[in-house]
Amino acid sequence: MYSCLQNVVPFNAMPVGRTREQWIAQYANSHQHPINRTCHTLGIPTILISLALGVSALFVHRLWPYALALFLIGWALQFIGHAFEGKRPEFFHDWRFLFVGVRWWWAKMNGKA
Predict the structure, then answer these.
(1) Residues 27/100, Cβ–Cβ less than 8 Å
(2) Hey, what long-range contacts does 95-98 have (CB within 8 A, 24 or more apart)?
(3) Domain range for residue 59?
């Protein structure tokens, strides 16, 4: 039908038998360069904080510039890291990796990645 949508993974398509650890391992495999790992270690929580501030900005309107700035900084850090890595972000291949990054960060903070 639409040729641009042929490679899009359906929202509910999760690979059978793939564990959380396998997702994190694949994510970690594409994040080997120390600068990339550092950029993601800082960028992921920056984005999470920006999202919380974004929700808060619905009620406290003066927070939106901070939420936007943190969001952009967090993403900039991640793309800078990928420039050092020399690889495209995993979510360019599969959008579900947007959520795996948070799992990877949590595992890293707990000494498991």
Answers:
(1) yes
(2) 95/9, 96/9, 96/14, 96/23, 97/23, 97/27
(3) 24-109
Task: Report H helices in the chain.
Answer: 20-29, 34-56, 64-85, 97-109
Residue type, position 88, single letter: R
What's the sign of the alpha-carbon dihedral 39, 23, 10, 53? Answer: negative
Q: pLDDT (tens digit, 9 = 90+) per residue, 65-96?
A: 999 999 999 999 999 999 999 999 988 988 88
In a domain, 19, yes or no: no
Q: Which two tokens stand for residue 69?
A: 């700035």
Task: Evaluate whether 35 touches 81 at the Cβ level (below 8 Å).
Answer: yes
Predicted confidence (pLDDT) at residue 98 exceeds the cutoff of 80:
yes
